[in-house]
Amino acid sequence: MGTELASVRDWVGGIFEKLKIKLAAECARNQHTIPYIPENGRYTDLEKSDGIFWWTNGFWPGMLWQMYNATKDELYRKTAEAVEIRLDAALESFEGLHHDVGFMWLHTSVANYRLTGNKDSRRRALHAANILAGRYNPAGKYIIAWNGDRPGWIIIDCLMNIPLLYWATREINDPRFQMIGMEHAYTAIDRLLRPDGSCNHIAILSPQTGDCLETPGGQGFASGSSWSRGQSWALYGFALSYRHTGERKFLDAAKRIAHYVIANFAQNDWLPLVDFRSPPEPVIYDSTAAMISACGLLEIAGHAGEFEKNLYGDAAVKILTTAEKTFADWNTETDGIIGKGTAAYHGKPHDTEVPIIYGDYFFTEAVLRLLEKEFLIW
After folding, report:
1. What is the pLDDT of residues 184-196, one digit of tens each?
2. pLDDT tens profile 307-355
3. What is the set of active-site residues?
4. Following DSSP, what letter does each residue of 152-186 receive, concatenated?
5. φ and ψ at residue 193, rounded to 5 degrees
6. What is the pTM of this model?
7. Cα(36)–Cα(59) distance, rounded to whole angstroms?
8. Ordered alpha helix ranges (H), 328-371
9. Can you tell me the distance from the alpha carbon of 15 to that of 158, in angstroms, rounded to the nearest whole number?
């Protein structure tokens, strides 16, 4: 990493100490909670109407498993396992689940199984992998996104879910799971990734042929714009597909996106606009895009050659340090660490520029990566 190593080590070491203090306080307060966004500074349980099916339900236990691995504090493990057991209700009433089962069970059951060998966790994770594989459309070679009357919808977010399929292939020596994941990633390159390294959030495909019919704006400003969290999902997602498959086309895609993302962060003093192609006013930030991008850049740096890895590692550090300095709340009496997270450009006040649980997860993962204390949760 080209950034001065001593200053980076000092910064990340200090942040880790703050994380331990803050997360221990949050964990003690929220042992029976599945958090999403704090309300009046405190988490409440399952705020969304989707309840147990809500896509972010795995990030709190994922953060706890990362901290358990780094510290061996049993409070983290016990709290994470309690959430995993609660998610059994979602597997039993599976009709409310969609493509985000990877986010939900990679961070709960796969994490638990990898760290403890829990056989019940393995069973849950394989169940979730079969649900995800069941959403595959063989004509269009993609995994259907949401439920309802949208059989042709593919979204960039799903790249972060297919590592569940790669895990399942290795776990039971069944290549069909990885085949589905790779086919979906190839289709994402063809239908969602643009030549300049930006990407669409959504493509609506013909479920009979896979032809692209429309590219709605989704959670960004408009069709053709550049929703920053979507870029971060693509950056990290393609890099993870390369890690699991060795397919060079995925790493090349991740690097193309990385160069686009780095340029846009640098253009805005390393702060994360919610959409890189939105009008100049109003200025709306999404810190979650910064945290995910940083993790993706650190992943790419691990696969890059000697003369290019500093590009990705240094950019990740600049993104992390700027966001922490600008947005972090280390008060142990309040829940949430990284503020200014935004769910969508045209979102509601309650999910615009607020702490969001997945922003804290990716911040934690990135810090632990820099300390070499993380474990592979994807």
Report:
1. 999 999 999 999 9
2. 788 999 999 999 999 999 999 999 999 999 999 999 999 999 999 999 9
3. 100, 157
4. TEEEGGGGGTTHHHHHHHHHHT-HHHHHHHHHHHH
5. -85, 130
6. 0.96
7. 9
8. 357-371
9. 30
